[in-house]
Here is the input.
Amino acid sequence: MNVQDPVRFVAKNLRVDLQLIAAMIAPATRVLDIGCGDGTLIEELFTTKGCDARGIEIDMAEVTRAVAHGLPVMHGDADSDLAQYPDDAFDYVVLSRTLQAVERPREVLRQMLRIGSRAIVSFPNFGHWLVRWQLLRRGRMPMTATWNRMWYETPNIHPCTIRDFFDLCAQEGYGVERWFAADEAGRRAPWRRFPRLANLFGEQAVFLLRRTGI
Amino acid sequence: MDQPVALSDQPHQHVTFADGMALECGARLARLTVAYRTYGTLNAARSNAVLVCHALTGDQYVAETHPITGKPGWWDQVVGPGRPVDTDRFFVICANVLGGCMGSTGPRSPRDGSAGETSTPSAPTPSPPWGTDFPPVTIRDMVRAQHRLVTHLGIARLFAVIGGSMGGMQVLQWAADYPDMVFAALPIASAAYHSAQNIAFNEVGRQAIFADPDWQGGRYWVSGRVPARGLAVARMCAHITYLSEQALTRKFGRRLQTAPKDSQEAISLFGDMFEVESYLHHQGSTFVSRFDANSYLTITRAMDYFDLAADHGGDLASAFRGTRTRFLLVSFTSDWLFPTAESRSVARALNRAGANVSFVEIASDKGHDAFLLDEPDFHRTLAGFLSGCAAHAKL
Here is the structure.
């Protein structure tokens, strides 16, 4: 995808990124993929794991493509549509590289862990060394492969770092069942035991959260 | 517009249930006739049946030349071999709604419940039609009549129920009343209740019919003069609501049309006539040759009564609680009769019920009528959704 295209966020590195997420999901479970795009993950989960996977997507062209491909996707957005679902409607609720673009990230996370017993969240890490370096050296908003839109047109209104996200999970009482940092292509990075290193060298992070008390 | 052509009586394929049917209003029809058409072949497992529900002025002639108008079927771009609802794959059923005028029991049917549209040679004198005494029917009554037909055809579960506008209301009613009989439900350009604005437009149409002296209190069969002018005006008014400002501008703009030289009547009071006026006159006058005024009154009323949530304690989600049906809702950007917000609220209610729901808004400037027209994105969406469902149904 051309970076000039008016997309919500940077192009998703679909295969690798989504495969890492798919690997966290148990077979034959109920999954909601928020910001599912053309439904690649949903299709993967249905065909290879027999999951009842559904999607929500804000971009109507993507929704049409997904439904025309036979996938259960509805037009909607994370900020306003999650409240409609009943408690415990899903085993997993997935939010792939969209958290930083929603209006109320904390509320979206709460809704995810209300309607699902587990949440899988991936987001681009604003703590990556190159982002820090560019801001420090040039004193201007960073432009990297991951953060590739100018500040005045980026949909990413709530960037955070891996350490910020750990803090939020602690504050909200979410259990971090698994987590890892990855590079832009979605390859897993080896700093799993060291959040500070991951925060410096991971271009994105994937978290598997669970509601505490279950 | 001034040449009243009475709706001709001609036989339609039908089934008659001699035990009749009780209606929601408490009245009972002594006999129930359901006129219908089918396309394609029912498979051995009887699992590939698709029920198409028609809209207010539609009928059962979905995908074939209409016997009265000679025009192509009203959804022949959607239903047929290789079409989104593929008759090479699915067995498609469409029934004329209860209260209609294409062979199903309605205001034109004989009041005593004798053989319906087809006159039996043995019947001594034909009973007078119901006219305006036909009991008020509801969308649920229409669906129950369709249910009788589907059961009569030996089908225990429909693979899909699909319909636009009032047809979509029937789809929602099917999914709510017979969830185990509906694998997939596709309400298109529809809503879970008829809005105040839509009731208002229907009332204008009804008043136009009442105001026609030829309506004669609904007993127009006595004089043989049908309320063609009133019904045509009703159709003209309704037709505007099926289009959009963009569509009217694109098709007609402000262009004037000049009167043909040998025209009997002045083309209009003002000398000239806008093309859009001429178009509406044409829509009105062709409509009366295929529709019955009392049926129009009956069916518009049924739409007005429709409020699925009200039948479930005011909570639309509870109409669908526990459903395993897969839903596809489709709306069109320029549809102001059944706007996207109404489809979205149905989608959200289905989410609250935990249902499997797909929801797409198709970009189109053609207004409500878009669901009947050539909209490639819509057709692709329908075809893809049905294929996806077929995979899940192991069809």
The longest strand of chain A covers residues 116-124. Strands of chain A lie at 30-34, 52-57, 73-75, 90-96, 116-124, 174-182, 204-211. The mean pLDDT of chain A is 89. Chain A has one domain: 14-211.
